[in-house]
């Protein structure tokens, strides 16, 4: 009877030992995972602190840059805006001082560069320089003419601008023909026409 009781009690002891072993294994696994998680969090936190110290966030007031057209690319993609705003034409017309500055710059380049290119027979450079300057002049002369309060003055300025553009086209044709005497003669005519139109709009 005593032996039977000993035998009957052995499985209970064995199961108790197994439960203890399993319980110890689970607690060890939890402790290991907890330690790993804690070390990972500490490592990430220290890395973030180091990165924040290495690359601080600086705040700049870019409202002035935006007013000068820094983010014009975003306006160009905005289909709700008028086409003149998307193309930048409205922004360019908004500053009369900048328009006058561009006109004077174009005039100085036409006066200084074209004659030298023609005399050296640099026909491609002469054509490109002429077309670069006239591309902005055509636009800026219209802007300056639109500022005239009197309708007759505005009409006269636009007519003078049209005459200047015709002189430029004649000069461009002479440059394409590579005719040096004709190009020099038509250059002087274009300069004179430009001086006349600028006198009426400035």
TrEMBL record:
Molecular function terms, GO-annotated: calcium ion binding
Protein keywords: Chloroplast, Membrane, Photosynthesis, Photosystem II, Plastid, Thylakoid, Transit peptide
Main location: plastid
Gene3D superfamilies in the record: Oxygen-evolving enhancer protein 3 (PsbQ), four-helix up-down bundle
Signal peptide boundaries: none
GO BP field: photosynthetic electron transport chain
GO cellular component: chloroplast thylakoid membrane; extrinsic component of membrane; photosystem II oxygen evolving complex
Localization annotation: Plastid, Chloroplast thylakoid membrane
UniProt similarity note: Belongs to the PsbQ family.
Protein name, per record: Oxygen-evolving enhancer protein 3, chloroplastic
